[in-house]
Design brief:
It contains 21 helices and 18 strands. By secondary structure, the chain is an alpha+beta fold. Strands 2, 3, 4, 5, 6, 7 and 8 form a 7-stranded mixed β-sheet that branches. Strands 1, 9, 10, 11, 12 and 13 form a 6-stranded antiparallel β-sheet that branches. Helix 5 packs across helix 7 (about 210-215) and helix 7 packs across helix 9 (about 230-240).
């Protein structure tokens, strides 16, 4: 281990992890510690590393040979590929200790944990020796309180036992600050690794838009559990913030009574497109499509089209295609005219009318087209986005390639991770494949 005297957990979060030869392993997502019955600092058992395949695995601290400001290095490129599961005596530092409320042992003053520092011992172990805490020191007026940050030894804090952490209600401010730098899919993976109580606390602290983004990346069972936990009004607000096709997919998994109740609570402008999507089977173009593609009238210019697809809220697939139709622009639109790929738009003068550059010969998909037909369509025309047009020649939505892939991947692929998806098709070739000796060594080091 490189000579390091103290490392704060927040500094580790998200750091890249490399093997001894510089090969990329993944990123640090959390620290795992084993709490003790006495007041001695808990031992740091290891780190939770998220591999490139999104799978989260446990790496014992004895495998860590160097911790630097920009990376963590392991002594071996082989890690146990078994998915990380938290044991009863273990605590996740970022996931559970951050924002925990405790007391100073000598004065009984209430404090909040905002960070934790681990330090090496003479036996090559690491312990969680110090805590960064926020202590309320007085009032500023108008009900606000003054607070001070300081770092204290673990022994000076009480109220952080397993029973305390599982019984108290925590905030989530520090954890959400870490989430700000993470993609929604990574936040979703983190939530799945948290205890249920902590998962709910984080969901309560998130704003509706962020929770909607994360909810879209969770497996169906986790989506249903979280929606069942939320109050009906909050659940309806989150569904409104989701993409209509994702909201429809989630609602289709609920009971008819729950589905109707939540749709009634949603604003009509938000619920109507979702209701239309629910009319189609999930494995048809209508069930796969989003009702909110980029639609312009024939008199719009290329410059206007490019301005629309620059919208950062659009996914890359949706931004790849502009659809042209007669008014109205909202789906179902007026008569469908054609579509223009963004590469074509980039080659044309900005003042050119978008109708003049639209492809009017590209075949369209019917809402009832089965998944097999949709898949062949994308393969045949090399597209990332495709128009869905009804029998009356109205554009009703667009299917994107990511939605097609979601339905082609094996059921439960979000739970198992991309590594398992790859291994179903053949043997894994990842440099992080583990051996039996890796498994047994990890068990000994984690015990």
């Amino acid at each position: 281990m490189a000579a390091v005297s103290r490392v704060f957990a927040a500094q580790l979060a998200g750091l890249p992890v490399f093997g001894p030869d510089g090969e990329s392993i993944g990123r640090v997502r959390d620290l795992v510690v084993g709490l003790r019955l006495d007041q001695l600092p808990p031992r740091v058992l290891g780190v939770v590393v998220e591999l490139a395949t999104r799978r989260r695995v446990f790496v014992p601290m004895l495998r860590v040979t160097a911790i630097e400001s920009n990376a963590v290095t392991l002594g071996s490129g082989s890690v146990n590929m078994r998915r990380f599961h938290q044991r009863p005596n273990e605590v996740l530092v970022l996931g559970q200790l951050f924002d925990a409320r405790a007391r100073l042992t000598d004065s009984g003053t209430r404090v909040t944990v905002v960070d934790a520092a681990m330090e090496p011992t003479r036996t090559r172990d690491w312990v969680l020796a110090r805590l960064a805490i926020r202590e309320r020191t007085g009032r500023l007026g108008l009900g606000r309180r003054r607070s001070a940050l300081r770092v204290v030894p673990w022994a000076e804090i009480s109220g952080l036992g397993l029973t305390d952490l599982t019984g108290q209600t925590q905030g989530a401010g520090q954890l959400l600050m870490l989430f700000d730098t993470m993609r929604a899919v990574d936040v979703a993976a983190t939530l799945r690794d948290l205890p249920l109580k902590r998962r709910h606390e984080v969901a309560d602290a998130m704003d509706d838009e962020r929770l909607a983004d994360v909810l879209e990346e969770l497996p169906e069972e986790d989506q249903k559990e979280l929606v069942a936990y939320l109050a009906d009004e909050r659940a309806a607000d989150v569904l409104e913030a989701m993409d209509p096709d994702d909201a429809a997919d989630l609602l289709s998994e609920l009971t008819p009574a729950d589905q109707s109740r939540l749709l009634e609570l949603m604003h009509p402008d938000e619920s109507e497109p979702v209701k239309r999507l629910l009319e189609y089977s999930f494995d048809t173009a209508g069930g796969l499509m989003t009702p909110e593609p980029v639609v312009l009238t024939p008199d719009a210019t290329v410059a206007e089209a490019l301005a629309h697809i620059r919208n950062p809220d659009l996914t890359p697939a949706l931004a790849s295609m502009v659809f042209v139709s007669r008014p109205p622009n909202a789906t179902p639109t007026g008569r469908y005219v054609g579509c223009a790929h963004f590469q074509r738009l980039l080659r044309e003068p900005p003042a050119e009318l978008v109708a003049a550059v639209a492809d009017t010969d590209l075949p369209t998909l019917r809402p009832t087209a089965p998944l097999s037909e949709v898949t062949r369509y994308f393969a045949a025309y090399n597209l990332a986005c495709a128009p869905v047009v009804d029998a009356e020649d109205h554009l009703v939505g667009a299917v994107t390639v990511d939605d097609v892939l979601d339905h082609l991947l094996p059921e439960g692929w979000r739970e198992t991770g991309l590594h398992d998806v790859g291994t179903q098709a053949g043997p894994a070739t990842d440099s992080t494949d583990n051996t039996d000796s890796t498994d047994s060594t990890e068990e000994a080091e984690r015990a």
